[in-house]
Structure prediction request, 462 residues.
Amino acid sequence: MRFPEGFRFGTATASYQIEGAAKEGGRTPSIWDTFSHTPGKTVNGDTGDVACDSYHRWREDIALLADLGVNSYRFSVAMPRVLPAEDGPVNEEGLDFYERIVDELLVRGIEPTVTLYHWDQPQYLGDKGGWLNRSTAYKLADYAGVVAHRLGDRVRTYTTLNEPWCSSYLSYGATEHAPGLGLGPGAFPAVHHLNLAHGLMAQAVRAEVGDRSDVSVTCNLQLNRGDADAVHRLDLIANRVWLDPMLRGYYPDELFAITKGICDWEFVKDGDLEQIHQPIDVLGVNYYSTSLLAMSDRPQFPQSTAASTAPGASDVDWLPTEGPHTAMGWNIDPDGLYDLLVRVHNDYPEMPLMVTENGMACDDRLVSEVDPSTDETVKAVHDPDRIDYLRRHFEAAGRAMDAGVDLRGYFVWSLLDNFEWAFGYTKRFGIVYMDYETLERTPKDSFKWYRKLIADRAIPQA
Prediction:
């Protein structure tokens, strides 16, 4: 198949995962600075203090994007760089940094796709309860307006939130992500306040740019298989808890039924759902793998395992999935992407979609070898498993388009190997290899494969 003209081919990154310069340019700590500096929270005690040093090397990274040939780049703005103090002045130096990135991307013919919140909440908000505090939603709306005012319609798409499932369930229900409170059902207020923030942020962006830029949100929707009751239960908790209020203006009654006794939902105030239900132009879908579920009679709420952190899911078991698996231990199921895109399209047919993240963690090795065309010794990374993964998932996306899905773009995660949250620097998702000692960047074979796909708008077979 060939992808249509105007299809958005991109890669994606996130500020805390690549920028570094944690104490430069007026930036103040985020909850992830605090979390990663807490002993035992990340593998090897890794932090984002330096990461890929993209704060200083952003021109080098944009040159890689230009070489790759993408027409869009999804990156996030760090709120602690823009509003480093609560109720304090806007940090013009922080805004200048992101404005330079936007301007350089446009010079290179690359459309900026800006994620406004990719988890690096300022610690001053975390100190007041973070997403458990309703006022955080309004602070994020103020911040969104500040960014949209400065960057304006030079940004093709403003994405309000990235993966609110993680920002609530993993961060407040469990302990894997900052702030890691392990509250179990106590995460539901964070769920609602994230939904509210999305609606308020969308309105703030619209007030600045009108219809001259797209407004979006990105969700890591789950495609589960197995027992029908378990699948339905998790669909309510993991998917419809976001999509129904955002796209339809209500929470499903069944969600209240399955959470009865563990959550009273009194934090949903009059008028909230009208605020949440704002028109958006495209829905971002992040997809990596599927899960296999069965019902269980376990009475306790799971406090730690990342797969089972959703409140109300204590009577669902996650079963082992068939291989092969990625370096993250996630199964490889391209059909899951097809099924998910078709399902979302069928349920919300008016909504255009984009795959805003898809990629594979591999145990990549940097090697030195002789280039036969020049007889020079060069560095290389051969990652055939990642190429096969991407090929099969692009094909699944193409089949979904043939089935009628209005798919507007596809962003490979990630441009660079980077700080993979609690896993530190032990997992490599990039199509560019990072030497964390020298900060040298080396395009992998998957980079060259993706470059050919973009140039031909067709999927290379090898």
Q: What stands out?
A: The domain at 8-456 is CATH 3.20.20.80 (TIM Barrel). Residues 188-209 form the longest helix (22 residues). Residues 345 and 405 are 6 Å apart (CA to CA). The two ends are 15 Å apart (CA to CA).
